[in-house]
Protein backbone atom coordinates (compact mmCIF):
# COMPACT_ATOMS: atom_id res chain seq x y z
CA UNK A 1 0.00 0.00 0.00
CA UNK A 2 1.02 3.61 -0.56
CA UNK A 3 0.66 6.27 2.14
CA UNK A 4 1.34 9.95 2.51
CA UNK A 5 4.92 9.48 3.67
CA UNK A 6 5.72 5.88 2.84
CA UNK A 7 5.05 2.58 1.17
CA UNK A 8 4.05 -0.67 2.90
CA UNK A 9 5.37 -4.04 1.74
CA UNK A 10 4.54 -7.58 2.80
CA UNK A 11 7.52 -9.37 4.34
CA UNK A 12 8.46 -12.55 6.15
CA UNK A 13 10.76 -12.91 9.15
CA UNK A 14 13.18 -15.87 9.47
CA UNK A 15 10.60 -17.38 11.89
CA UNK A 16 8.14 -17.44 8.91
CA UNK A 17 5.98 -14.77 10.59
CA UNK A 18 4.27 -12.50 8.03
CA UNK A 19 4.95 -8.80 8.65
CA UNK A 20 4.14 -5.45 7.10
CA UNK A 21 7.24 -3.35 6.41
CA UNK A 22 6.60 0.38 6.14
CA UNK A 23 9.33 2.32 4.35
CA UNK A 24 9.18 6.02 5.15
CA UNK A 25 10.35 8.22 2.28
CA UNK A 26 13.73 9.76 1.68
CA UNK A 27 14.47 11.59 4.91
CA UNK A 28 11.97 14.43 4.53
CA UNK A 29 11.44 16.50 7.64
CA UNK A 30 7.75 15.52 7.79
CA UNK A 31 8.56 11.84 7.19
CA UNK A 32 11.12 11.85 10.02
CA UNK A 33 8.63 13.59 12.31
CA UNK A 34 5.90 11.06 11.43
CA UNK A 35 8.24 8.12 12.01
CA UNK A 36 9.30 9.32 15.46
CA UNK A 37 5.67 10.05 16.40
CA UNK A 38 4.61 6.59 15.30
CA UNK A 39 7.34 4.83 17.31
CA UNK A 40 6.38 6.96 20.35
CA UNK A 41 2.64 6.18 20.04
CA UNK A 42 3.06 2.48 19.54
CA UNK A 43 5.58 2.31 22.37
CA UNK A 44 3.26 4.07 24.83
CA UNK A 45 -0.08 2.38 24.01
CA UNK A 46 -0.25 -1.33 24.74
CA UNK A 47 -3.40 -3.22 23.86
CA UNK A 48 -4.00 -6.72 22.59
CA UNK A 49 -5.61 -5.46 19.40
CA UNK A 50 -3.45 -2.50 18.55
CA UNK A 51 -0.62 -3.22 16.18
CA UNK A 52 2.63 -4.63 17.53
CA UNK A 53 5.79 -2.93 16.34
CA UNK A 54 8.25 -5.76 15.69
CA UNK A 55 11.18 -3.51 14.81
CA UNK A 56 12.34 -0.26 13.25
CA UNK A 57 15.41 1.38 11.74
CA UNK A 58 16.09 5.10 12.12
CA UNK A 59 19.75 5.13 11.01
CA UNK A 60 19.48 6.40 7.45
CA UNK A 61 16.81 7.01 4.83
CA UNK A 62 14.77 5.19 3.90
CA UNK A 63 13.70 4.50 7.49
CA UNK A 64 11.54 1.44 8.14
CA UNK A 65 8.96 0.17 10.63
CA UNK A 66 8.16 -3.56 10.81
CA UNK A 67 4.69 -4.58 12.01
CA UNK A 68 3.25 -8.00 12.72
CA UNK A 69 0.50 -9.18 10.31
CA UNK A 70 -0.76 -8.21 6.83
CA UNK A 71 -2.94 -5.35 5.53
CA UNK A 72 -6.74 -5.14 5.19
CA UNK A 73 -6.51 -3.24 1.91
CA UNK A 74 -4.98 -6.34 0.28
CA UNK A 75 -8.29 -8.08 0.89
CA UNK A 76 -10.61 -5.20 0.07
CA UNK A 77 -9.04 -4.09 -3.19
CA UNK A 78 -7.84 -7.46 -4.55
CA UNK A 79 -9.91 -8.79 -7.43
CA UNK A 80 -9.04 -12.44 -6.73
CA UNK A 81 -9.80 -12.52 -2.97
CA UNK A 82 -13.13 -12.65 -1.17
CA UNK A 83 -13.96 -12.11 2.50
CA UNK A 84 -17.05 -13.97 3.77
CA UNK A 85 -19.68 -11.74 5.38
CA UNK A 86 -19.04 -13.19 8.85
CA UNK A 87 -15.34 -12.26 8.53
CA UNK A 88 -16.22 -8.77 7.31
CA UNK A 89 -18.52 -8.26 10.31
CA UNK A 90 -15.82 -9.53 12.67
CA UNK A 91 -13.29 -7.06 11.20
CA UNK A 92 -15.76 -4.16 11.56
CA UNK A 93 -16.43 -5.08 15.19
CA UNK A 94 -12.68 -5.44 15.88
CA UNK A 95 -11.93 -1.98 14.51
CA UNK A 96 -14.84 -0.29 16.29
CA UNK A 97 -13.73 -1.82 19.61
CA UNK A 98 -10.17 -0.61 18.98
CA UNK A 99 -11.38 2.89 18.19
CA UNK A 100 -13.51 2.87 21.36
CA UNK A 101 -10.40 1.89 23.33
CA UNK A 102 -8.34 4.71 21.78
CA UNK A 103 -11.10 7.28 22.35
CA UNK A 104 -12.29 6.19 25.81
CA UNK A 105 -10.08 3.45 27.28
CA UNK A 106 -6.64 5.07 27.36
CA UNK A 107 -5.49 7.43 30.12
CA UNK A 108 -5.84 10.21 27.51
CA UNK A 109 -8.00 10.30 24.40
CA UNK A 110 -6.13 9.22 21.26
CA UNK A 111 -7.35 10.60 17.94
CA UNK A 112 -5.85 8.41 15.19
CA UNK A 113 -6.67 10.81 12.32
CA UNK A 114 -5.75 8.43 9.47
CA UNK A 115 -8.13 5.47 9.66
CA UNK A 116 -8.23 3.67 6.29
CA UNK A 117 -7.83 0.07 5.02
CA UNK A 118 -4.06 0.51 4.58
CA UNK A 119 -3.79 1.22 8.32
CA UNK A 120 -5.71 -1.85 9.45
CA UNK A 121 -3.57 -4.97 9.83
CA UNK A 122 -4.96 -8.51 9.96
CA UNK A 123 -3.44 -11.45 11.80
CA UNK A 124 -3.59 -15.08 10.70
CA UNK A 125 -7.06 -15.40 12.31
CA UNK A 126 -8.29 -12.23 10.53
CA UNK A 127 -8.35 -10.19 13.75
CA UNK A 128 -8.05 -6.50 12.87
CA UNK A 129 -5.43 -4.25 14.48
CA UNK A 130 -5.04 -0.49 14.05
CA UNK A 131 -1.65 0.73 12.78
CA UNK A 132 0.10 3.93 11.66
CA UNK A 133 -0.10 6.42 14.51
CA UNK A 134 2.04 9.01 12.72
CA UNK A 135 -0.75 11.64 12.53
CA UNK A 136 -2.30 10.84 15.93
CA UNK A 137 -3.08 13.41 18.59
CA UNK A 138 -3.26 12.78 22.32
CA UNK A 139 -5.73 15.00 24.21
CA UNK A 140 -7.17 15.19 27.71
CA UNK A 141 -10.39 13.23 28.21
CA UNK A 142 -12.34 16.38 29.12
CA UNK A 143 -11.49 18.02 25.77
CA UNK A 144 -13.98 17.61 22.94
CA UNK A 145 -11.73 18.50 20.01
CA UNK A 146 -8.28 19.57 18.94
CA UNK A 147 -7.32 22.21 16.40
CA UNK A 148 -4.67 20.96 14.01
CA UNK A 149 -3.44 21.32 10.47
CA UNK A 150 -4.99 19.07 7.84
CA UNK A 151 -3.14 15.73 7.46
CA UNK A 152 -4.18 12.30 6.38
CA UNK A 153 -5.46 10.69 3.23
CA UNK A 154 -7.84 12.58 0.97
CA UNK A 155 -10.98 10.52 0.49
CA UNK A 156 -10.97 9.30 4.09
CA UNK A 157 -10.90 12.73 5.72
CA UNK A 158 -13.97 13.99 7.57
CA UNK A 159 -15.48 17.36 6.55
CA UNK A 160 -14.50 18.74 9.99
CA UNK A 161 -10.91 18.82 8.71
CA UNK A 162 -11.90 21.84 6.58
CA UNK A 163 -12.22 23.83 9.82
CA UNK A 164 -9.10 22.25 11.39
CA UNK A 165 -11.23 21.03 14.34
CA UNK A 166 -11.12 17.29 14.80
CA UNK A 167 -12.80 15.01 17.33
CA UNK A 168 -13.13 11.29 17.90
CA UNK A 169 -15.97 11.46 15.37
CA UNK A 170 -13.30 12.22 12.74
CA UNK A 171 -11.97 8.66 13.15
CA UNK A 172 -15.48 7.21 13.06
CA UNK A 173 -16.22 9.07 9.80
CA UNK A 174 -12.97 7.83 8.21
CA UNK A 175 -13.71 4.24 9.22
CA UNK A 176 -17.19 4.50 7.73
CA UNK A 177 -15.74 5.41 4.34
From TrEMBL:
InterPro entries registered for this protein in UniProt? G-type_lectin_kinases/EP1-like (IPR051343), Kinase-like_dom_sf (IPR011009), Prot_kinase_dom (IPR000719), Ser/Thr_kinase_AS (IPR008271)
Catalytic activity reads: L-seryl-[protein] + ATP = O-phospho-L-seryl-[protein] + ADP + H(+); L-threonyl-[protein] + ATP = O-phospho-L-threonyl-[protein] + ADP + H(+)
EC annotation from Swiss-Prot or TrEMBL: 2.7.11.1
Which top EC class applies here?
Answer: transferase
Domain Protein kinase residues, every copy: 1-177
Keywords in alphabetical order:
ATP-binding, Kinase, Nucleotide-binding, Serine/threonine-protein kinase, Signal, Transferase
Molecular function per GO: ATP binding; protein serine/threonine kinase activity
Q: Which Pfam families match?
A: Pkinase
UniProt protein name: non-specific serine/threonine protein kinase
- From which source organism is this entry? Selaginella moellendorffii
